Amino acid sequence: MVQLDVVETCNNALVKKQSVTAVFVGGTSGIGEYAVRALASTHGTSGQGLRLYIVGRNEPVANTIIADCREACPAGEFRFVRASDLSSLREVDRVCREIINAEEASVAGKSACIDLLVMTQAIFAFGG
Question: Does 112 have pLDDT greater than 80?
Answer without folding.
Answer: no
